Each structure stands twice: as C-alpha cells, then as structure tokens.
User: Which sequence fits this backbone?
C-alpha cells in the first residue's frame, strides 16, 4: 500500500515552506481553512483546479511552476508557453527592439529566467569584447560571461565585489524559485576561481567615490576604467510562461567619464539600419 502523499500535496508543502508560511498563514491568504490545506498537503483531500490556482497565487509561484502544480493535481496547464518567434509575440519582440535600440549607446540585454542571453544591443560590445567564442555558443549566459576567468572577469577591476553580488543574487533566486537549472548554474559559476584581491591585474583602480550604488560594474577598457550600474525591466501581468520569464537589463554610466567614453566608442556603429542583435541568440 502506497502511503506517500500525492505529488501535489508534497509540492504545495515545499512551496509553502520555501515562502516560510505556516498552514494558517497560507490558508488565510488563499481564503480557505487550515484544516483543508492540511488535508491537501497530506493527501487526504484533492484540491480543485481553482484551489490550486488560488494557492499558487498566494504563494507567488512562477507561471511555469503553476502549470506543474496543476499537472500534479491532474489538471491541464493554465498558462501557455510560446516561442519568442511566434506571431502572437510580435508586439513583445517590437517592444524589446525599441527598448534595446533606444538605450544605445549604453549596453542592454534581453535574458530568460536562467540569464541566458536572447538578444542584445550594440552597446553590449563593451562587455563582450575579448570573450572567447566557447562562452558565446550556443548561447551566452550573463553569469558565465561575468564570472568566468576567460570572460569579463579578466577585465573587472572590482571582481571580488561583483562576484559576491552575483552569487548572492543567484542564491536568492534559487531559494525563491527552487529552479533546478538555476541551481546547476549556481553550482557551476560558484566553482569558478575566486580572485585573490581586486585590482591585482592592474594599477588603474582609483579610490571609490561617493556613490548611491554599492557595487558598480568597473571594467578596464582601452579608453580607461568604465563604471556602470544596471536596472531590470520586466513585463507586467504576463499570461504566458515565456513572457513571464523575460527580463531586460539596462546598463547606465555611473560617471561623466563613462558616459562620454560610451558615446564616443570608435567601434560602435549607431547607424539605425544595422539594428539590435535581437536575433543573434534566439532559439531555432
């Protein structure tokens, strides 16, 4: 006799514990009873489709995992997963192209949930200069590009600070999502060699000026050390798994020197006809 609880109950309990909620807290948020929730988690009751969706919303479960919860409970997925190339995603592609192009000459990149690069503008060349082809194929990954010793890490003045920031960010995402692909990425980049000390590869580091950004991205270039920070843009109220997992990272200069250097890069062609690199790493 199989005494193991149904998978849906175990999954809901994992999400509740990941969010550090008691059964009572979750029951109140989902407008149900703690007794019913307990029965669902232990397999004594099967939740309705509506209840699975209400619990998923209360737990802030990503759309991809909401579909997994529905399947585990015996229901069809509620959210479709489109390709970025689909006709229905034309408006999204157009919006992304506008954002990437409008942000030039500053770098901007489109990423998926695992930080794989789906597109970039021409300003990203300043971050990808000298990166070997093996880190760009079949698809670049932001964390590999930044932290691999053969990637951008070799040109980062403050690699120790950036490495700590990136690993902490990725760890928080793993904790919040439980995503096995993100966990594998964290395990991989966490094994990259840590720097002995910042600035060891050159004498161009200057004392940090007062700044509202705790850890800027400080990069050695032929023009000098460029300092940047970034913001993230996501799509509001997504009803598609792919759309819910897209994000655009926009980099901005932290000082006037960096702004001027990015605007006058001799290798940056700002001819609108050349277009952004949106299609460069899209899946086939």
Assistant:
């Amino acid at each position: 006799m199989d005494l193991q609880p149904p998978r849906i109950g175990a999954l809901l309990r994992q999400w509740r514990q990941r969010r550090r909620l008691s059964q009572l807290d979750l029951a109140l948020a989902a407008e149900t009873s703690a007794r019913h929730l307990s029965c669902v988690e232990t397999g004594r009751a099967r939740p309705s489709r509506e209840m699975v969706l209400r619990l998923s919303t209360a737990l802030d479960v990503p759309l991809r995992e909401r579909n997994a919860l529905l399947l585990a409970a015996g229901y069809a997925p509620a959210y479709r997963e489109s390709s970025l190339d689909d006709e229905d995603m034309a408006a999204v592609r157009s919006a992304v192209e506008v954002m990437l192009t409008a942000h030039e000459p500053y770098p901007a990149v489109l990423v998926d949930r695992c930080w794989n690069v789906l597109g970039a503008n021409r300003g990203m060349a300043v971050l990808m200069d000298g990166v070997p082809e093996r880190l760009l194929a079949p698809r670049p990954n932001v964390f590999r590009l930044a932290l691999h010793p053969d990637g951008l890490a070799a040109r980062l003045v403050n690699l120790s600070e950036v490495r700590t920031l990136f690993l902490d960010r990725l760890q928080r995402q793993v904790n919040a999502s439980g995503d096995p692909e993100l966990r594998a990425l964290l395990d991989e980049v966490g094994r990259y060699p840590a720097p002995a000390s910042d600035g060891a590869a050159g004498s161009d580091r200057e004392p940090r000026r007062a700044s509202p950004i705790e850890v800027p991205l400080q990069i050695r270039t032929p023009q000098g050390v460029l300092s940047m920070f970034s913001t993230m843009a996501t799509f509001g109220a997504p009803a598609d798994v792919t759309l819910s997992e897209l994000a655009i990272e926009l980099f901005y200069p932290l000082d006037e020197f960096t702004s001027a250097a990015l605007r006058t890069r001799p290798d940056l062609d700002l001819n609108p006809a050349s277009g952004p690199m949106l299609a460069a790493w899209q899946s086939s």
Observations:
- The domain at 7-72 is CATH 1.10.260.40 (434 Repressor (Amino-terminal Domain)).
